[in-house]
Amino acid sequence: MTDARRTDAVLLLVALVWGSSYLSAQTAVAALPVLLVLFARYALAALPCLALVAARGGPRGWTRDEVRAGLPLGVTQAAVLVVETYGVAHTTAANAGLIISLTIVLTPLLDRTGRRGAPPPAFFAAAGVCVLAVGLLMSEGGFHTPRLGDLLMLAAACVRAVHVALVGRLTAGRAIRPLHLTAVQTLVGTGLFLAPAARGLPALARADAATWGQLAYLALFCSVFAFLVQTWAVQRTSASRASLLLGTEPVWAAAVGIALGGERLTPLTALGAALMVAGTYWGQAVERAHRTAPTALAPRATDAVRAFAPATAPERNGEDPSCRTTALTST
Are 222 and 24 in contact (CB under 8 A)? Predict the structure, then answer.
């Protein structure tokens, strides 16, 4: 296997792991309260992050920029996971993974770090396709009042878009290391959920092996492993290619939900799934072309500067407004 194919395979593995996280979260919250699941996930993720930070220089290795960015991002990330996990508990894993992919087309509407003006009309057309897809996904068994879980996943997509836009704003032009930023966010999340989950700690201690396995999978594989492996992979390919491969996450979410969760797609929801994937890919392509297009006054000046400047944290991770790559971004 060539290096390029190996890198592609790793990125697809990350997308598969993130896609499977919705069914794992759904299974975990069936056994434990949502806030307890989130506390356990953050705490289990914080331990290996802190160990890796210690191996690379200890707490003194954190820079002021990493702490200043990590604190607010930890709060917004926790907000994403609260809404997302409650949503997963009240809808199918397939719908959860598909609806949350709206983040791809919502984020560019909020992000202003590129300063290239509003997206072109084609982008809003792609967003319209995604909105239609959400309506179809919520129509399982025919058109009816949307389920609570679907509405929560829609809200989670909006909150996540705010979070990703904030990542770009707080990390742009700063030398922020992904591992150190992740560690700060996991500590913030652990602290935020400790008090609400304190009363349920005895229930966590009595949880069976299957539930602990789901929690460990969410924390170690869907968060720490996926993030670090993704960082390794995107350094060996282009951000566009990484974004394309990671964009298959909703496909994997639907496949895992159907194959392992016993879920099914009606003709309407199947059409919605196809439109969601098509709309997000279309919107992603339009946004990337708009963002990377040369300006009229200086056709290649920006590219020339970026070619010789050190990569910022979002660039190193393949983090652009259409590609979710922050730690613990996926449920």
Answer: yes
